[in-house]
Amino acid sequence: MLKLDEIQKRLLKEVADLHTVPEGAYNIRSNSKSVGRQSSANIEITSKTDVSGLEIRIKPGTKNESVHIPVVMTESGLKEVVYNDFYIGDDCDVVIVAGCGIDNCGNQDSQHDGIHRFFVGKNSKVKYVEKHYGSGDGSGKRILNPGTEVYQEEGSSVEMEMVQIKGVDDTVRTTKAELSAGAKLVVRERLMTHGNQNAVSKYEVYLNGEGSSADVVSRSVARENSYQKFDAKIIGNAPCSGHTECDSIIMDNGRILAVPGLEANDLDASLVHEAAIGKIAGEQIIKLMTLGLTEAEAEEQIINGFLS
Amino acid sequence: MLQLKNVCFGVESDGKDKEIIRDVSFEIPDNKLVVITGPNGGGKSTVAKLIAGIEKPTEGRIYFNGEDITEKSITERAKMGIAYAFQNPVKFKGIHVLDLLKIASGKDLKIAEACEYLSAVGLCARDYIGREVNSSLSGGELKRIEIATVLARSLALSVFDEPEAGIDLWSFQNLIEVFDTMRKRIENSSILIISHQERILEISDEIIVLKDGSIEKQGKKEDILPSLIGTPEALGVCRNNVPVKGEPAVC
Predict the structure, then answer these.
(1) Total number of domains in chain A
(2) Angle, helices B111-120/B139-153, rounded to nearest 10 degrees
(3) Would B114 be classed as within a structural domain?
């Protein structure tokens, strides 16, 4: 039976909304070891033999099933690179929940670099949820550098929800996607940084097939002395449509650099980018104050809504 | 209920002091609906903002139920019982109509209760409760949601700044009904509406005419309204705005 301490349970709740062992296939990694694993009839999870990580194979036609592969780290000074590969057969409809929670109470840096590759079969539908969270009072940094690669076959659809709201000191997240004909990618990123945190988010989306589409939207808040860079590039190599948007709020001494990029290599590629950075509108705070909230409560409501 | 005593308000413009409100004194009694009317630029909306605490007077005092609230913040006044509907409703990303009504009511409002407030302003609640309060809503829809947030507060004093602005004719008829109902249930509360509309002036108890930052006249509706009919201070229902010179008002 899987045994987790209170901190591990709290981290699991933050990153995967898990209160107990999940249903269906799962692998829970704690302090660099797999502490619980279950495959299902249609989803097989095995360990890689050459490097640290997992291979997750989902049979063609698997519908309405989920895979949870959360990671928790509670020992200060751990550094790891993990390679997880997902092979999703044709005609699937699955939910994949990843995420990493670090609790660092020590004075050494803790770092988890999760490299995820998705090979999505024809006409398959995947929802991928990845949440990152850090806690702990130690002076050691909590560092997460997720790398995501997505290879989508014809007619497939991938929706990615990437959330990092609290406690990660340093992050460089890199996402690369290649889409075949008729494939669709939707990314919703939510990011909040505070203290002296640093976050870089890079996207490179290649629309290689006719009728492929991508919609990459980031909403972020940079508070206190934190810094963010959003660098999203969509490359249209076929008749396709792409949209990238960075919508950000800056507070205190927060700084944000948005670098939306578009490259059209086909006459029928239709690509759009939008970027907006600014502080919270004064009238929004005033409106909520007239409803009885204090200025701080009003700011909290506005940010919660913005990042919801 | 509310009393303004010798209130002045000025701003600095091009290095010069500009007076917007000059020595304004009036009272909004308990259980009364008072309308402030007057020409555009006369300072009506500024008075509403001074009452809500969005602006602070440069001189004079404001009393609410006998307590001096001149130095009180927006939040403190809201908590004391002053509700304020914006002339131009504010939009939010990610905040839904239900969230806003919950904040306004100060409790975990049930969906059925929230729907009542929306129905009261003529919105089909089911279609709106889950909508974001953003630019996907029309000006008229935002305006009605704004009024619903004030209804959800059900406070001692409700201030509406030009509720008819930016609203279509059909919505306006509905709006009159909303105010009429509020007027009938005014027990233990008061209402202040900034408006040019004859129909709103008609349901008032008292009227204040504000011009160039000063009160031109004030008194009971019966005494003031006859002198306003046909002037821009009391527009008929078909004319939400003063007609362009030489052009007839379009109904």
Answers:
(1) 1
(2) 120
(3) no
Chain B contacts of A302, Cβ < 8 Å? 92, 95
What is the spatial distance between Cα B193 and Cα A101, in angstroms, rounded to a whole number? 53
Distance CA A290, CA B150 (A): 10
Chain A stretch 209-268, residues whose beta carbon is closer than 8 A to a beta carbon of chain B: 219, 247
* CA gap A119, A152 in Å, rounded: 6
Residue range of the domain that includes A55: 6-306
**Domain range for residue B8?**
2-91+150-228
Q: Which two tokens stand for residue A154?
A: 């014809």
Contact B27, B218 (CB under 8 A): no
Please judge whether B93 and A286 are an interchain contact, meaning their C-beta atoms are less than 8 angstroms apart: no
The reply to whether A1 falls in a domain is: no
Global confidence as pTM:
0.84
| For B52, nearest residue in chain A (alpha carbons) | A290
Residue A31 lies in a domain: yes
SS3 call for B130: coil
Asked whether residue B70 is domain-assigned, the answer is yes
Of B79, B84, B99, Cβ closest to residue A305: B99
B141 in any annotated domain: no
Q: What is the DSSP letter of A192?
A: E
Q: Which two tokens stand for residue A293?
A: 């909230």
- Nearest Cα residue to A30 out of A67, A69, A86: A69
Residue B223 lies in a domain: yes
Reading chain B (251 residues) residue by residue, the pLDDT tens digits are 899 999 999 988 888 888 899 999 999 999 999 999 999 889 999 999 999 999 999 999 999 999 999 999 999 999 999 999 999 999 999 999 999 999 999 888 888 888 988 988 888 888 898 899 998 998 888 988 999 999 998 789 999 999 888 777 777 888 888 888 888 888 889 999 999 888 899 999 999 999 999 999 999 999 998 888 777 677 665 444 444 444 443 33
Q: Which CATH number do you get for residue B53?
A: 3.40.50.300
- Counting the structural domains of chain B, the total is 1
Any idea what DSSP says for residue B244? P
